[in-house]
Write a structure and sequence with these properties.
Blueprint lengths: L1 E3 L2 E3 L2 H4 L6 H4 L15 H14 L5 H10 L3 E2 L5 E2 L11 E3 L5 E3 H7 L9 H5 L2 E5 L4 E5 L6 H10 L3 H4 L1 H8 L1 H14 L2
Parallel strand pairs: 2-8
Antiparallel strand pairs: 1-2, 3-4, 5-6, 7-8
Helix pairs in contact: 9-10
Length: 189
Amino acid sequence: MFQIGKTIVSEEILQNDFVCNLNACKGACCVGGEYGAPLEDSETDKLLNIYDKVKPFLRPEGIAAIEEHGTFVKGEDGEWETPLVNNNECAYVIFTAKGVAKCGLEAAYEAGVTKWKKPISCYLYPVRTREYSEFTAVNYHKWEICDPACALGEELKVPIYKFVKDALIKKFGKAWYQELEEVAAENSK
């Protein structure tokens, strides 16, 4: 672990490789698990404000779940998260003709309908952050469904922190990311 500003960062994001391989996993991270995508407090308002614009991009099952439970829900841990369809996939997930899970929020963003891409937790994945009173923990979330992404990342020699560069900059800023790159360069010697 090392510190950058008010973050404590796991060296695993420097030491492990990762590149999403949707052909192999079919977007399983949006479908598997027992919880919705973690949301920051500020993202709950965004979901509420853009729902009507995003709704045409969603599946009927997702719309039904959102209209029954709301655009976001309080998880068992007391934190905000996206609602699920039948305790399974994220209510905002859509599927391609080949059965690959994609984000309906991102589809609306790419179509120019909204200015918000998706929750930062999804954008950062496989990096997970956790806010504490004095610092933010920045960790690697290893999940076996992402083994193909780890293999592709290793093949392409792309460390996690480079794969999620844009998301890390969005979350922590350019200066923070530059310091992370300096730590990575120092650790690779």
